Write the structure tokens for this entry.
Amino acid sequence: MSPIELSQDACDFLDEQRVGHLATSTPDGEPHVVPLCYARLNQTLYFVCDEKPKRHGPRSLKRLSNLQKNGRAALVVDRYNEDWTKLAFLLLQLDAEVVVRDVEYEQALAALRSRYRQYENMSLTIDSNPMVRMTPSSAHFWKA
């Protein structure tokens, strides 16, 4: 699908929130949803397969396998509050692919490290820690 331009309100909302939920699917349509740390560079979102404990290492993550077979995904970023007049969410439909250029990887990694201090102490490299570029193709932003 064609990329879209996110509104300034949507970009601000993405920058204010800390976690999204990424939905991918297996080739036979089985859904898979995981919480996700992300960073935004202009109109593009990124996540890295980091060094948090994993059963089989970052390259074996189901979300990565799903995206390599089907590059379509969805990301929901939401804000919950007991005061329901403050509720909001952004649903993005995305085209996703693994980053292969060193320059893009380093720029996105710098954005992730500035957003999540935990990444500062991780030795994240393009060879061992895949990064995924997520380009929005549609957006639905709702605020109470």
